[in-house]
Write a structure and sequence with these properties.
By secondary structure, the chain is an alpha/beta fold. Helix content is 35%, strand content 14%. The strands form two sheets. The chain has an eight-stranded parallel barrel with strand order 1-2-5-6-7-8-9-10, surrounded by four helices. Strand 3 and strand 4 form a beta hairpin. The N and C termini lie far apart (85 Å).
Length: 367
């Protein structure tokens, strides 16, 4: 009979056949770090004479060239910080008064200009130095670093501003003198984690990454920007020599986060909460997306990194403080700057909206 044969064949197949492979476990869901809100979104400002600020201006004329900074198109400022650049440190030490300087401060850096921004909730700082004044930093620190710090503190008091240290000495910087400057400033305006007193905001510029201004960066990271004993509020990783892509910028910023353990002596890692990243908004003869088109800008492409980069040896919270832009109005004798018709509501201003930048600036993360 055929049925028993068929049944026996079926039983043999069931007994000897290869069992089906077990289904693989589901892949773990990708880990997405929560974006830390941007807190600093500022612009260095070079005035209308290529960072000299040597002319007193009417507020009406100043507004005609800079209105985008206080109005992104809906009445809200495009930035929450403006850094007036630059004060000559030697002129400040000597309290120089001449055709372009009054008591050591450029004549264009007036209380009226400061109030133009602060009345709209935009914090103001003065930058001391810049690459042009490197030798003058050297001379001032050698002559009387403590007095220079005291005079910087006095200007901060008079104008109601913070101070940025832009000391770009790449070879054998006078770190002893700079420490004395900082000590003298902090004796007048102590560190204030709340940020409530503008005069207490004291910051420093470092290179885009860890391979320039190495000695300065090592000292700042190791002694002044620690989360457990802060002396300076934060550092600005400056722009590179020319505009860079988001990926190139991020690689430079990651150097600060990682430090340079292979150097001798090593450069320690910097907490992401203790620095900003610099991006160009003006360079050359055509508008940059960073100024006019947020959708294709470096700050938009880099924002996920800036808001989520994890600490790597220093700090406890992810994300850098935010962005700084170089530079408003006329940063160079060549190029279009950010004056009409090439203003930056559509770039930096749109970014302020997209990133929900707080105006005024809140108390900064401390770790």
């Amino acid at each position: 009979m055929r049925r028993p044969v068929l049944l026996s064949t079926l039983l043999l197949i069931l007994a000897t056949g290869t069992p089906a492979a077990a289904a693989p476990p589901p892949a773990p869901a990708p880990v997405t770090l929560a974006a830390t809100p941007v807190q600093v979104y500022g612009a260095w400002h070079c005035g209308n004479d290529f960072c000299t600020w040597g002319t007193v201006r009417t507020i009406a004329e100043f507004d005609s060239q800079n209105h985008w900074l206080i109005d992104r198109g809906d009445g809200r400022p495009s930035v929450n910080l403006v850094v007036l650049s630059f004060v000559n440190p030697l002129a400040l030490l000597h309290q120089t008064t001449d055709a372009t300087t009054l008591d050591g401060v450029p004549t264009g850096m007036t209380s009226e200009v400061v109030n133009y921004f602060t009345a709209r909730g935009v914090r103001v700082m003065l930058s001391i130095g810049g690459i042009t004044y490197t030798d003058d930093w050297e001379a001032a620190l050698a002559e009387n670093a403590t007095l220079l710090g005291q005079r910087a503190a006095a200007v901060a008091t008079r104008l109601g501003v913070g101070i940025e240290i832009d000391y770009e000495q790449n070879t054998d910087p006078n770190l002893t003198g700079l420490q004395a400057f900082i000590d003298a400033y902090r004796a007048v305006h102590p560190y204030d984690a709340t940020g409530a007193r503008p005069q207490s905001r004291l910051t420093i510029d470092v290179a885009a990454g860890d391979r320039w201004l190495i000695d300065l960066n090592r000292k700042a990271t190791g002694d002044w920007l620690r989360t457990d004993a802060p002396v300076l509020d934060y550092a600005n990783a400056m722009v590179s020599a020319r505009p860079a892509s988001a990926s190139t910028s991020q690689a430079s910023w990651q150097e600060h986060v990682d430090g340079k353990p292979q150097y001798s002596p090593p450069v320690p890692p910097l907490a992401p909460a203790k620095f900003t990243g610099g991006v160009y908004i003006a360079y050359g003869g055509r508008p940059l997306p960073e100024c006019v088109d947020y959708a294709t800008s470096v700050q938009r492409a880099a924002a996920p990194y800036v808001q989520t980069v994890a600490p790597h040896g220093a700090g406890a919270t992810p994300g850098m403080l935010g962005f700084m832009f170089w530079a408003a109005e006329r940063p160079s004798t060549r190029g279009i700057g950010t004056v009409p018709p090439n203003t930056c509501e559509g770039g930096a201003g749109a970014g302020a909206t997209a990133l929900s930048v707080p105006v005024p600036m809140p108390a900064l993360r401390q770790s």
